[in-house]
Design a protein that fits this description.
Structural class: alpha/beta
Order of helices and strands: HHHEEHEHEHEHEEEHEHEHEEH
Number of helices: 11
Radius of gyration: 23 Å
CATH class of the largest domain: Alpha Beta
Largest sheet: 5 strands, mixed
Distance between the termini: 54 Å
Number of strands: 12
Helix content: 40-55%
Strand order of the largest sheet: 4-3-5-12-6
CATH superfamily of the largest domain: Periplasmic binding protein-like II
Strand content: 15-25%
CATH topology of the largest domain: D-Maltodextrin-Binding Protein, domain 2
């Protein structure tokens, strides 16, 4: 059994056909077909049922896929943790949930490295907190940023520890409201919560349950009272919508004054949002002594301090 065969099984299961998997992996279709048949023969099981509608996992195949995915994830994790990156090269994969300032800090890190490195290869993915934890644990990404209600902190830290992940709190804060500088409510320094119902709300598109929204904003928060809601996953699109959807608003963490000014936005307090949220940076315990991870942590904390101090 070879790792490549396991990767083929995962790709075929994900894509639903050998043809699509071959395109995804930049492999010849016959090579994958032969490899799968050899694997099934050596194991004495049938992993896929071949049908006119594509490749369908058998019950044995479902079990095999789960174990194959674990093995491939572990291999990727080992390679990322112990591969030696040349000093004149920056290779980094970042997974982030929501924190605009955190990805801005990564931009600062990249700029610093670009002055002393010959090659830069950085991948940044926006996703949910659960997916960040999953992908960091699997070794698909080097470092991640998550946001949780502070009341969930003990539970999340327990999960991180169980997965051999390290989590450091960057900042803790109540959510605030961001809106266009010409928004009718921009005149308030502390916005009365009941007035927000009259305006469209932009919501992060990972479709979090109402209990999470309550834990993030206020224990009495009622998700159903808001009737104008726009769910958007991408951060850039969220900012674009705040500029173009008339009188839209969004609950956010502290934001850079530079970003606000550039996009004609303002940040306002809303005392109703009295629950605290916590932004954390997470990474694998095996990466603790990595110079690059240390640089990431230092840069993010320095940037976060400036955002909180309204310096940037």
């Amino acid at each position: 059994m070879k790792i490549q065969q396991l990767e083929y099984v995962i790709a075929v299961a994900r894509e639903g056909s050998i043809t699509k998997a071959a395109k995804k992996l930049y492999q010849a279709q016959p090579n994958i077909s032969i490899a799968l048949k050899e694997l099934e023969a050596s194991l004495g099981i049938q992993i896929f049922n071949r049908s006119p509608n594509g490749m369908i996992l058998t019950p044995e195949g479902e079990e095999f896929l789960a174990r194959a995915q674990t093995i491939v994830d572990e291999m990727q994790s080992l390679e990322r943790d112990y591969a030696q990156t040349p000093e004149n090269e920056l290779k980094l994969k970042v997974a982030a949930a929501r924190s605009t300032y955190a990805t801005s800090a990564m931009g600062k890190l990249i700029s610093d490295y670009s002055e002393k490195t010959d090659k830069i290869e950085v991948h940044v993915m926006e996703t949910s907190t659960a997916k960040v934890m999953e992908d960091i644990c699997a070794g698909k990404y080097d470092i991640g940023f998550i946001r949780i209600p502070s009341t969930y902190a003990d539970m999340i830290e327990s999960r991180l520890k169980a997965r051999n992940l390290v989590g450091k709190t960057i900042m803790e804060f109540p959510l605030q409201v961001v809106m266009n500088m010409n928004h009718p409510l921009a005149q308030y320094e502390d916005i009365p919560y009941e007035l927000l119902y009259n305006y469209p709300e932009i919501i992060h598109g990972d479709d979090e349950p109402e209990m999470m929204r309550r834990a993030s904003i206020n224990q009495d928060y009622d998700d159903k009272r808001s009737t104008k809601r726009i769910f958007i996953y991408d951060r850039g699109t969220q900012i674009s919508m705040l500029k173009t959807v008339k009188n839209a608003y969004m609950w956010v963490s502290p934001m850079s004054q530079r970003v606000l000014k550039y996009n004609d936005l303002v940040l306002r307090k809303c005392s109703y949002a009295n629950n605290l949220n916590r932004d954390m940076i997470i990474y694998r315990k095996a990466s603790e002594n990595s110079t690059l991870i240390s640089d990431c942590i230092r840069t993010v904390f320095e940037y976060a301090d400036k955002v909180e101090g309204l310096e940037i």
